[in-house]
Specification:
Elements: E1 5-10, H1 15-28, E2 33-38, H2 52-69, E3 74-85, E4 88-99, E5 102-107, E6 111-112, H3 115-122, H4 127-135, H5 145-150, H6 157-168, H7 170-173
Parallel strand pairs: 1-2, 1-3
Antiparallel strand pairs: 3-4, 4-5, 4-6
Length: about 180
């Protein structure tokens, strides 16, 4: 029996995002050969989105760009953002997944942010740069991310993205219910 080939394009060249997409699809389609590659895809939003709406828009814009640029079975994009909630500021990611004409949107869990970090973001800094400065790391956003640092490694940016991608795939796995 021949293995199915699934061609995936991720709207980012960040290895954390590409690996999360590959891991998620490998879990969902264990018998398939997953060809997962990242590509530059502009978000069309600020480098550090500061609202849920802007973050969601960035993920959708990245997926749409990929759909117009290359042929694939799945297109995925993750956009990390920040917002202030009743319980305080938090970071999260929106996930956009497209397949043919279908678009599915998901969101990751929220990570509460320390007030000092949120203030730096409100002043115009980007989360990865703030975390690098505070924790004396280099390019943490292409590693465990703020999630890894603030959870002391119990969760990582990649693990949270992987989970969110699997959840966002639900409508594509069960089209009869959506």
């Amino acid at each position: 029996m021949q293995q199915a080939n699934i061609r995936v394009r991720v709207g980012s060249t960040n290895p954390v995002k590409v690996n999360a997409a590959r891991n998620a699809l490998t879990q969902v389609f264990p018998q398939a050969n997953i060809d997962c590659q990242g590509m530059h895809a502009p978000s069309g939003v600020a480098e550090q989105p500061m609202t849920e709406t802007e973050t969601r828009e960035g993920a959708i814009n990245r997926v749409r760009f990929c759909q117009q640029a290359v042929q694939a079975d799945f297109y995925l994009a993750m956009e990390g953002g920040v917002d202030a909630f009743d319980h305080g500021p938090a970071t999260f990611a929106y996930i956009a997944i497209a397949r043919a004409e279908q678009l599915s949107i998901g969101r990751s869990a929220l990570l509460p942010l320390p007030p000092k970090v949120h203030q730096a973001l409100l002043a115009g800094e980007e989360l990865g740069h703030v975390m690098d400065r505070l924790f004396n790391t280099v390019n943490i956003k292409q590693q465990g991310g703020a999630i890894g640092l603030l959870t002391q490694g119990h969760a990582t940016r990649e693990s949270i993205y992987t989970q969110a991608i699997i959840l966002a795939l639900a409508p594509m796995l069960n089209p009869q219910w959506y």
